[in-house]
Amino acid sequence: MTILKKSLPVAAVLIAAVTLYASSVERYLHVRVSNPKTHELVRVNLPLSLAEKVVPAINHGQLQHGKIQVGDFTTDVDVRAILNALKTAPEGEFVTVQENDSDVRVAKEHGQLVVHVVDKAGKENVDVTIPWEVAEALISNTTGNELNVEAAIKALEATGDHNLVTVTGQEESVRVWIDSNSGDKQ
What we know:
By secondary structure, the chain is of the alpha+beta class. Helices cover 30% and strands 37% of the residues.
């Protein structure tokens, strides 16, 4: 019994240290674009903490004060109402469109919004997976046709490792993901 009494404070300190370390791990946004035919490669490995500070400081074109204008998609569509409905809906496949030249699938899987597009003519696949917290952050404190990039970055910091976007085609491939590696190790 005395060993247990002596071990409890040590265990509590270790748990606190591990929790503190885990919450302070830097998350990185990675983007990799590669073209095997031309041997071109672009890699971006950006700490989310840096992105969170830089994005609101950029006021150019559609990106203003951490928010980006994305056209006029909200004129006839209430994005907030759709996201709220999807969030409370059970998991499953919601939309499937199969045509001669393309397939589209929209689903809710493992608490995430999933979009899969196959362009048969261009021989390209696009996969987008967005955690619900990030989707909600994108529309927080916005008006009309804005997406809140700054809030989405903050939300990404709280999520685990995620593949966000994968595009594979004949000419090049694109991958966007979040993890705690400072390089683009896969």
